[in-house]
Design brief:
This protein is rod-shaped. The chain has nine helices and seven strands. It is about 55% helix and about 15% strand. It has one domain: 2-Layer Sandwich (Beta Polymerase, domain 2), CATH 3.30.460.20. The protein has a seven-stranded mixed sheet with strand order 2-1-3-7-6-5-4, with helices on both faces. By secondary structure, it is of the alpha+beta class. A hairpin with a 3-residue loop joins strand 6 and strand 7. Pfam families: CorA.
Length: about 350
């Protein structure tokens, strides 16, 4: 009996595509890669990247890599179409914002926020990048918010017409990530302020210290980052057209506003800490005042009891019946007299 097995052409094609992607997906350090300029962004695989075929007119690529993979190190080491200085920089371990502009392109480092799942030890992460007219290469060690958001935008169909606009999109994602974090810190400071005004300070000092540490770190990196990025607006490469530079300038202006928000929130947290310190000092002064008054009230009685407590034969009242109660009454009278004196002097 002749049996014919029918196969779905679409399912067969999808199976073949999945198999091809599995074979050519490349190292785990390849996070994503896209080609722009043909309308809808097209996802690339590792074989497309290794071919290194020149992009067509108006086309460019974004390659996002994870440097922890040794095969990415090898690829960067042998990628002769990338300038040597840029290759060493992409594989380096610099952690401070910097920007290098050369005749062949631009490479630099951006400070960004790590993803929430990886931000338990330190929120700050770094992103190395290289950009010329045909590609933007970004390299990171830990997952970052800006590149993850940009990747999702591209997957949803966001298109860019040049590498400079793509970098502007990345900076916009970076700005929005910092803005969201600052909004969360602002809400936290609002809650602490309400607590301080309600005189509930048990956990406020430590919470404010944590906020100030984060803001100080943001300010330490955001300020130099926005300053060096301003140099991108003066690029004179043929692929950096004026419209793209204007768009980039608008995004960088947003980073300037971000720096102002950080400074204002830092000063606000500082003032709240000073208010807490003032409240604690005031409370301590009140406690010391109460302690001083009690000491003053007990001082005459203490002196009298010390005199009559001397173990000497000439102490009066040793053989007198009821002398103990006379002494107690005298101590009480002296205490009342001291209280009246303090009230007259307006010390109590």
């Amino acid at each position: 009996m002749d049996t014919t097995v029918r196969t779905d052409p679409l399912a067969s094609q999808q199976s073949h595509t999945r198999g091809l992607l599995t074979l050519t997906a490349g190292p785990g350090g390849l996070i994503c890669a896209f080609r722009f300029g043909g309308g809808q962004p097209v996802r690339l695989n590792w074989a497309d990247i290794q071919d290194g075929a020149p992009a067509g007119p108006g086309e460019f690529t974004w390659i996002h890599l994870k440097i922890a993979d040794s095969r990415i190190h090898d690829w960067l080491e042998h990628a002769q179409d990338i300038p040597e200085a840029a290759r060493h920089f992409l594989a380096g371990r610099d952690s401070r914002p910097r920007l290098h502009v050369t005749d062949s392109g631009v490479h630099g480092l951006l400070v960004d926020l790590k993803m929430d799942t990886e931000a338990q030890d330190d929120e700050k992460g770094v992103l190395h990048f290289f950009m010329d007219g045909t590609r933007l290469i970004t390299v990171r060690t830990r997952a970052l918010r800006s590149t993850d958001k940009l990747r999702r935008l591209v997957e949803e169909g966001a298109d860019y017409d040049c590498t400079l606009n793509l970098l502007a999109g990345l900076l916009q994602c970076l700005h929005e990530g910092f803005q969201e974090r600052l909004e969360a810190l602002t809400d936290e400071v609002d809650d602490i302020e309400a607590s301080v005004l309600s005189d509930r300070r048990e956990a406020d000092r430590s919470a404010l210290s944590a906020v100030r540490r984060q803001l100080a770190e943001f300010r330490r990196y955001i300020n130099p980052e926005r300053n060096i990025l301003g140099r991108l607006c003066t690029l004179r490469h043929e692929w950096a057209d004026s419209d793209a530079r204007d768009h980039l300038a608008q995004v960088i202006d947003g980073l300037h506003g971000l720096a102002g928000t950080i400074d204002a929130l830092y000063e606000r947290a500082k003032l709240l800490q000073e208010e807490i310190a003032s409240q604690m000092a005031e409370e301590m002064n009140r406690n010391l005042m109460v302690l001083s008054i009690l000491t003053a009230l007990l001082m005459p009685g203490t002196l009298l009891s010390g005199i009559f407590g001397m173990n000497m034969a000439d102490v009066p009242g040793l053989q007198t019946p009821g002398a103990f109660w006379w002494v107690l009454g005298l101590m009480g009278a002296l205490g009342a007299g001291m209280l009246l004196l303090l009230k007259k002097l307006r010390l109590f």
